[in-house]
């Protein structure tokens, strides 16, 4: 399979690659952007622990450092993520704006259990909030004493 090292890949696409191809693709992203488990999770739309577990279980040969720093601006550009309010002019002109139904999310609940993965929770919050959302967030949690 031909791999485009300069394009994001979905999780199902990634899993169909040969082990060596998986290694080369991830290593390229680490070398180019400083990518780590959290940034891979953002690209694959899953969580960092899933990425780490998969790499370990399938002997991909990539060690992901928890302390590495991704170049967030370049990584977001690679993923095609734009800052709020930033929209290429050609796209803005080409796409008609959908009519609003007037409906909006006014309340939501997320619950996580098991080992707390703060990075995975942050990824889930980024999926819900687009950067323009205004309001209040209340955080409560319960820990288990072991």
Provide structural commentary.
This protein is mainly alpha-helical. The chain is built from 7 helices and no strands. The radius of gyration is 18 Å and the shape is globular.
Question: Which structural traits does this protein have?
Answer:
146 residues; globular; mainly alpha
Topology, pairings included?
Blueprint: H1 11-16, H2 19-33, H3 37-44, H4 48-57, H5 72-79, H6 89-94, H7 118-128
Helix pairs in contact: 3-4
Question: What is the chain-wise order of helices and strands?
Answer: HHHHHHH
Report the total helices.
Answer: 7
> How is the main sheet built?
none
Instruction: Name the helicity range.
Output: 40-55%
Silhouette = globular
The radius of gyration computed from the alpha-carbon positions, rounded to a whole number of angstroms, is 18 Å
Distance between the amino and carboxyl termini: 48 Å
Question: What is this structure, in a nutshell?
Answer:
By secondary structure, the protein is mostly helical.
